[in-house]
Amino acid sequence: MTLPRVSMASTNTSTLVSAARFVVQFDGGSEITFSEMNGITTEVEPTEYMASGKLGVSLSKQFGKTKPAVVVLKRGVDQDFTLWTWHQEVLAGQSTARKSCSLILLDMSNVPKQTYTLLNAWPSKLEIGGFKAGGGDAIVATVTLICEQIDLSKPVS
């Protein structure tokens, strides 16, 4: 298994990124649109290292175990069953449930602002919530995607 990695192709910080919607696009051309992204999380656990020498004992923090990258997205429930079917593949233990895909952040004019490539992503959690009898609120699906690696690429101008 490849360790999670985040790479950044651009370090230009002069313009803040604002996204109106988020699209997960698969190699076959299909896509799922989301209205909210709770975040992308990558983490390396710190581990303590103790050494002793002539000057005594010294403690330091070192890089520890890496955790898989996590992306949490939300969308309104509609008649598109792509997300549900994908999660069912995971529940059934199908190896084809791991999919490489692109998470594209689009502005109000549908211009891509950032693209994150998720390698071997799969939905570890799918939550359908917001049910209320007589309520007028939309039902929301929240999906947690786990992936082995995330690469950030600069938008094509």
Explain this structure.
The protein has one domain (9-153): Pnp Oxidase, Chain A (Roll), CATH 2.30.110.20. The protein is 6% helix and 58% strand. It is built from one helix and nine strands; from the N terminus they run βββββαββββ. Strands 1, 2, 3, 4, 5, 6, 7, 8 and 9 form a nine-stranded mixed sheet that branches. A hairpin with a 2-residue loop joins strand 4 and strand 5 (56-76). The mean pLDDT is 85.
Category by helix and strand content: mainly beta
Fraction of residues in H or I helices = under 10%
- Outline, from the CA principal axes? extended
Strand content: over 45%
Order of helices and strands: EEEEEHEEEE
So, CATH architecture? Roll
In total, the number of domains comes to 1
Distance between the termini: 34 Å
Query: What do we call the CATH homologous superfamily?
Result: Hcp1-like
Radius of gyration: 19 Å
Q: Which class in CATH terms?
A: Mainly Beta
Q: Sheet bearing the most strands, described?
A: 9 strands, mixed
Give the helix tally. Answer: 1
Overall mean pLDDT: 85
Unreliable sequence segments: none
CATH topology: Pnp Oxidase, Chain A
Counted beta strands: 9
